[in-house]
Design a protein that fits this description.
Length: about 150
Amino acid sequence: MPPPCASFWLAPDVASASLTRERVRSWLDDHGWPPDEAHDLVYAVSEAVTNAAEHAFRTPPPRPRPDPPSIWVDCRLHEHDDGREVRIVIRDNGCWKPADADRGFRGHGLTLSGAFVDTFRLATGVAGTTVELTGRITAAYPGRPRRRPRG
């Protein structure tokens, strides 16, 4: 059985989302995660990483940053009596920038991410932003009905 966790650092650049999708999808496949549910998790993680890469490092930090700009992705699989759960945390060491009042067609990625996972949490602070996502499958029903974004 592959390790129940996978963690990696990323530079905040245009390649980070693609690299994340490849690594997370491979890790989920290694654990036999159902393809539809894996797709939803990979989408949500990709959006969170893209958001960090595009927005967290656009403005100078309010205080000097001890480490170089980076994004940390941590994936963990938990086995329970009634099924399995994947918890994925995406953390950056940048600065939170509130959304512009007029977002136009952009600015909906984190909202969509939350629609594709069972739990979505966002925390911001002076040390950066953390997004926590969870996906669950039950032992009785190995997959779950796909949720569609509300809108």
